[in-house]
Design goal:
Number of helices: 23
Structural class: alpha/beta
CATH topology of the largest domain: Rossmann fold
Number of strands: 19
CATH superfamily of the largest domain: Tandem AAA-ATPase domain
Distance between the termini: 66 Å
CATH class of the largest domain: Alpha Beta
Helix content: 40-55%
Radius of gyration: 33 Å
Length: about 600
């Protein structure tokens, strides 16, 4: 209850009898009443109401200068709630208000200029890599959920991207997705986890090839299906459809909204492309001619492709300047020559590989093909590091010694192994498991042949050990030279990624010296390092030994991150712009993407 004494010049009064908040300029007592002379805070008009004691009691009086002594957290929550309420009612880009992203012009164009204009979204997004297709898919999801159009969402990706999608959806859009894979299906025997979870990420290769997974998935209805790297769903003709394509046909029929995403939609075959688009709607383009006409006239309402050279930023608020989104990538090869003893070792290894490969080709069986793959892998590991090829040779020798001791046990456990068709799509951990099995393969269990192979392998191992002791590996010395001559770490904040294809080479560079691992060369050079490889779980920022923790360690502390292909799976390394590809020339480097 307000008293007359509280109303003083300079104060602000508000109340049901006042037309607006008034700044008090003067007061005139009139018996029990009070005449207030003041200026309106909103209009600037002069007001001079005469207020009775009852009206005075209903006033709210505050100082001219607010004390700002309230609880800041509650104030922020109140402002945020008010903002969200206005956004929900008036903002056509509402999902931006509830997402943790700063979208780019081309991303807004795709979502609001194309996706949201379709009453039933059936769309192929074919932008170049790096355009942020994940962000566009997330914005679409938020818009459809805000409108009450979707509840159950399925994201189908290559196996090595499942956890990346799960993390991106959680971090950027506050959407919780469960990853369903073989272990989840086995743990829920007798149940259907596809029906129990409303938001799921799964592997396209696994769910396409494993019958139980596919059948249980197709018993569920989905409101929105998003397929990443959708070009894997390919079909040359009616009789030549991949398992992934057949899965795509089934998913297309059981969902309302279907988004395909790929950077390589066209493989040069018009019929292949037409069948690919038929996943969205089999009736729209019944012939190659109608498809070509639509593309030429830019009348394909469910297809969008932008190349990275055309992507730009928003105009600068002061100058109006727009900049290209992608700066030029500078690539330089650091050439080196093999040391004389390195060359001798490489020649010896090549002769061994050639002899084994010839015998493998003559064998002609699945076992022979497996040995042939192992021989090719040996030379790739030589290109990676002497340590990597030495560790592979040691494992091959140990396996032959075990077989020599008990050949009958080997025959019983031997199975006809082959490289799975989706080997490149498997996670690094799964690939390494298969490679370890292939290293166990031998062409013959004849004791004389095994002893000869053991002798040859032992000689190669001895040569490799001698090279390591001399510390003259040309490739390693070139790496050190590049680090020194380029002055990479003259800036203490500079970060560098070193990519290697093989875990053994990673140990050679950043090993901790425990459990048979060497002390890494980068540690010997006094550099601080972090590492990511397929044997590490995704984890989180607070779990030591996990990939996300390693990412945080690299961001906040380490100078160098040495990583295998696993660093391209669910890890955000965009804060680093320097990288050394420490693998054989021409080999894939997924961390770049």
């Amino acid at each position: 209850m307000t008293s007359i004494d509280e109303i003083q010049p300079g104060s602000i009064v508000r109340g049901p009898t006042l037309p607006e908040p008034i700044e008090v300029l003067a007061t005139v007592p009139m018996g029990e009443a009070l005449k207030v002379i003041g200026r309106g805070m909103q209009t600037g008009m002069t007001h001079d109401p005469v207020l009775t004691p009852a009206q005075i009691a209903a006033l709210d009086v505050s100082a001219r200068e607010l004390p700002f002594d309230g609880e800041a957290r509650l104030f922020r929550l109140g402002v945020e709630a008010y903002r969200l309420g206005l956004a929900y009612e008036y903002d056509p880009y509402f999902s931006l208000s509830i997402a943790r992203v700063d979208p780019l012009p081309h991303q807004l164009e795709a979502v609001y200029g194309y996706f949201m204009r379709l009453p039933r979204i059936r769309f192929l997004l074919a932008d170049d890599p790096g355009a942020g297709k994940t962000v566009m898919a997330g914005l679409l999801l938020k818009e459809l959920k805000a409108r009450g159009l979707v509840r159950r969402v399925l994201i189908v990706t290559p196996a090595n991207l499942t956890f990346q999608w799960q993390r991106e959806m959680a971090d950027k859009f506050r959407e919780k997705f469960s990853v369903i894979r073989g272990s989840v299906l086995r743990a829920n025997y007798g149940q259907n986890p596809w029906q129990e979870e409303d938001q799921v990420v799964t592997s396209v290769s696994w769910v396409s090839l494993i019958e139980d997974a596919r059948e249980s998935l197709l018993r569920s209805h989905w409101d929105l299906v998003i397929v990443d790297e959708a070009h894997k769903m390919s079909a040359r003709s009616e009789d030549h459809k991949t398992y992934a394509y057949r899965l795509g046909e089934s998913l297309s029929q059981m969902t309302d909204h279907f988004l395909l995403m790929t950077a390589t939609p066209h493989k040069g075959d018009p019929e292949h492309f037409r069948r690919f688009l038929a996943l969205l709607d089999p009736d729209v383009y019944g012939s190659i001619e109608s498809l070509q006409q639509a593309m030429e006239k830019q009348e394909a309402p469910f297809y969008l492709r932008r190349i990275k050279e055309a992507l730009v930023t928003f105009p600068h608020p002061e100058t109006g300047e727009v900049r290209k989104l992608f700066t030029k990538r500078l690539v330089r090869s650091a050439a080196f020559d093999l040391d004389g003893e390195e060359l001798d070792f490489y020649d010896e290894l090549t002769r061994f590989v050639e002899d084994q490969s010839i015998m493998a080709a003559q064998e002609g069986s699945a076992r022979g093909r497996a040995v042939g793959f192992t021989m090719a892998m040996l030379q790739r590991r030589m290109a990676s590091s002497v340590y990597a090829v030495r560790r592979t040779l040691e494992r091959m020798r140990a396996r032959r010694e075990k077989i020599l001791a008990d050949p009958e046990a080997y025959r019983k456990e031997q199975i006809q192994r082959k490289m799975p068709d989706d080997f490149d799509e498997l996670t690094e951990e799964e690939q390494q498991e298969i490679i370890a099995q292939l290293e166990d393969e031998v062409l013959s269990v004849d004791p004389a042949v095994l002893r000869e192979e053991i002798t040859q392998i032992s000689r190669l191992v001895d040569l490799a050990i001698a090279l390591e002791k001399r510390e003259v590996e040309s490739k390693l010395n070139k790496l050190r030279e590049v680090l020194n001559t380029e002055g990479i770490f003259d800036d203490p904040k500079m970060k560098l990624i070193v990519f290697t294809e093989h875990k053994d080479t990673l140990d050679y560079l950043v090993g901790d010296g425990a459990d048979g691992r060497p002390l890494g060369k980068l540690h010997e050079w006094g550099l601080t390092t972090a590492q990511i490889h397929g044997g590490m779980k995704i984890g989180d920022r607070n779990t030591p030994g996990s990939r996300i923790y390693a990412e945080r360690d690299f961001r906040e502390h380490a100078q160098i991150l040495v990583a295998t292909e696993a660093a391209g799976e669910g890890i955000n390394l965009q804060f680093c712009w320097l990288m050394v590809n420490y693998t054989s020339r021409g080999e894939k480097c997924p961390v770049i993407k």
